[in-house]
Specification:
Layout (H helix, E strand, L loop, with lengths): L9 E2 L20 H5 L13 H4 L3 H5 L5 E13 L4 H14 L2 H11 L3 E15 L9 E17 L6 H7 L1 E22 L2 E22 L10 E20 L2 E8 L4 E4 L1 E2 L10 E4 L2 E9 L3 E8 L15 E11 L2 E10 L7 E12 L2 E9 L5 E10 L3
Parallel strand pairs: 1-2
Antiparallel strand pairs: 2-3, 3-4, 4-5, 5-6, 6-7, 7-8, 7-10, 8-12, 9-11, 12-13, 13-14, 14-15, 15-16, 16-17, 17-18
Pfam family, one: TraF_2
Keywords: Signal
InterPro entries: Put_conjugal_transfer
């Protein structure tokens, strides 16, 4: 870790395959460095990322780096652990062929099936204020764009396989939108300690859709019901960070203004599940220790948060990660994360390496996997920096 002041420009090309059993899973995490360390952000972010993750940390890390920028970071997530689409198409073909025995087996494999897919992009800037403004020591801004789709099967309890397929539903919810945030941060003295305090004002634009079709009709693309809505609102994030020697601690409050997006039904809809998307305040705390060649930190969500109703997407994560600079040009990273808001197996390990190709060009590689060894994510970053 460099202690001298520096100016940094980070260019991130992020290609990823992130498998997650939670809908809308942490789409706000965009860079391979963060995921290689288990997704820790509260005290582990640098000046180029702090505006997105912890506004208060920006004034702390800007003492070590006078400014930086992460320019378009792109991510793609996909999860189909139950092969939902394949089995739903198989059910349609089996109904056409009159294969009731095979249909019963296919419907059994669809019980509890889920599928997730999303794409995201971001730009983030952070800098130390050079105008000697007593109210603002550091500032930053970011923009985030994302789109996601989640699918789940709701099986009926009919005993006849064909009737069960006709009365069972494939529920699809889609969410797209963007955040435009501006962050200001300053240091505040309290009880003999210095704290970084920051706030982000952001414009949020969201579009939400829901589609419903029967399992029997899924293969021909027939949609029974659909609903949609769009919202635009102002929201706020706040964060506090403390540093003393190598130790850091912090807390963030994301989306301070709660609201619910109610999806409007099409005029032809007479009955269907009402899908609403809820945004609720999320509180996360973190601690860490940072040395020149080694760092270790951990985050914990203090409350549960979710998204669409009728979907099992509640989240409350514990995340831990660290990095070790081995020799010139090589830094190893690793992490662990677990979702405590679900009974599903949501424990993951992460690992990564940063290679210094040139003094100002770095490559980050990362992977995410289950304890039994199944690969659940891959990431790659190209970083360009000028010191």
């Amino acid at each position: 870790m460099l202690n001298k002041q520096k100016s940094t420009v980070t260019f991130t090309l992020l290609s990823s395959l992130l498998i997650s059993h939670s809908a809308h899973a942490t789409y706000k995490i965009f860079d391979a460095r963060t995921y290689a360390m288990g997704g820790v952000t509260i005290v582990a972010s640098d000046v180029t990322r702090a505006a997105m993750y912890n506004p208060g940390l920006l004034s702390i890390v800007s003492d070590k780096s006078i400014g930086g920028m992460t320019i378009p970071s792109i991510g793609y997530d996909y999860d189909n652990p139950n092969h939902l689409t394949r089995h739903a198409n198989e059910a349609y073909q089996q109904i056409l062929a009159g294969d009731t025995s095979g249909l019963s087996e296919t419907l059994a494999s669809l019980d509890g099936a889920v599928e997730h897919e999303s794409v995201s992009a971001a730009l983030s800037v952070g800098a130390k204020d050079s105008t000697n403004n007593p109210w603002v020591e550091s500032f930053g801004f970011y923009t985030v764009g994302f789109a996601s789709q989640d699918m789940a099967v709701e099986l009926s309890d009919d005993s006849d396989a064909t009737t069960q397929a006709q009365n069972s539903r494939v529920n699809t919810v889609q969410l797209g939108g963007s955040d435009f945030g501006f962050t200001v941060a300053n240091k505040v003295a309290f009880a003999g300690q210095q704290y970084g305090v920051g706030i982000t004002t952001k414009l949020q634009k969201l579009r939400a859709y829901s589609l419903q079709s029967s399992v029997a009709d899924y293969g021909n693309g027939a949609v029974k019901t659909r609903s949609r809505t769009k919202e635009e609102m102002i929201n706020f994030d706040a964060g506090v960070a403390w540093e003393s020697g190598p130790f850091r601690a912090g807390i963030t409050a994301i989306n301070l203004i709660p609201y619910t997006i109610k999806l409007d039904k099409s005029p032809d809809v007479t009955s269907a599940t009402n899908f609403n998307y809820k945004i609720t305040p999320q509180f996360t705390t973190g601690v860490g220790v940072f040395f020149r060649d080694f760092e270790l930190s951990a985050d914990y969500d203090l409350n549960q948060f979710g998204g669409f109703n009728h979907f099992d997407d509640n989240q409350q994560w514990f995340r831990a990660g660290g990095s070790l600079h081995l020799v010139s040009g090589i830094t190893l990273r690793g992490g662990y994360q677990r979702n405590y808001a679900t009974d599903q197996d949501n424990k993951f390990y992460t690992a990564g390496v940063m290679l210094d190709i040139l003094p100002f060009i770095h490559v980050d590689l990362a992977a995410k996997f289950k304890p039994e060894g199944d690969l659940y994510g891959m990431f790659a970053n190209l970083t360009m920096a000028q010191f």
